Amino acid sequence: MSRKVAVIGDGHVGQTVAHHLVVSGLVDKLVLFDLDEAKVKADVIDFKDAMANLSHHVEFAYNDYAELADTDIIVSALGNIKLQDNPNNDRFAELPFTSTQVKDVAKKIKASGFHGKIVVITNPVDVITMLYQEGTGLPKEHVIGTGTLLDSARMKHAVANSLEIDPRSVVGYNLGEHGNSQFTAWSTVRVLGKPITELAEKQGLNLDEMDKQAREGGFTVFYGKKYTSYGIATAAVRLVETIFNDAHTELPVSNYAPEYGLYLSYPAIVGADGILERLQLDLTEEELQKLQVSADYIKTKFAESTEK
User: Fold this and answer.
1) How far is CA 193 from the centre of its chain?
2) Which of 12, 20, 142, 178 is catalytic?
3) Are 76 and 94 in contact (CB under 8 A)?
4) Cα–Cα dist 225/212, whole Å
5) Alpha-helical regions (H) of the chain
6) pTM for the structure as a whole
7) Contact call for residues 218 and 206 (beta carbons, < 8 A)
8) 20 annotated active-site
9) Ranges of residues in the chain whose predicted pLDDT is under 50
10) Residues 142/114, Cβ–Cβ less than 8 Å
11) Residue 89 has what pLDDT?
12) Phi-psi region of 31 (alpha: psi -120 to 50; beta: other; left: phi over 0)
């Protein structure tokens, strides 16, 4: 079966997603979109130049919304990263720009007859995922944001670094908004066969510091090179691969939470039909309160995005 993916937004993140998809052999056809026609055309030529040195073949197209009719997965990576360069480390700084762009793109996606899945990277991702779902009319289960899949990976990196182990040996989640109100749900984190809260007490681990590293790690990268790319692109490609493989993998992604009436990050089972099932975690009262605060913040910002 042919696998076709479209990447909307050919900036640092979109390019990295596209490169990962092509080099890994995950796609048979890739469609790139960007407002900069010369840039996106150049990237397609560059990819075609790479074909002779790859073990597989990939077809390419660009800036043609008619191509979306039989596309399996759209990855939204559009944005204006320069707006993130603000003193408040606020991902919502992009909202006026991205919300306007996404509303226009969603109309074009709907008009194309697209009936696949959408993976959203565009910030602020929880609000933007809702805008895509509303704008396209696709089932809520078919529109998924990368959410805290990256933040959870950053948490695992921080924990693993403190214990000198592989981050893949750490289990647990960051929940809520992909932004400043997110938090590490330490009650879900296990490592070395034990709850991390138990290890922290015995080994003197600073959970608050590790939570801060997970929450602020993206800005450390951003201020070093003025964008982030590898971490978030890998998270998005993992979602694409999970959908293609119908893997039924448990991932903390931005999905629709009916109890809050919005999208936020919470672990769910992901497969070929998108969100297959939402997990039910036994969170502490403090964690539930933090999740509510995060949900309220997302709701406020979503209201702002729909005022215009």
Assistant:
1) 28
2) 178
3) no
4) 20
5) 12-24, 37-50, 95-112, 125-136, 149-163, 196-203, 207-225, 230-244, 285-305
6) 0.96
7) no
8) no
9) none
10) no
11) 65
12) beta
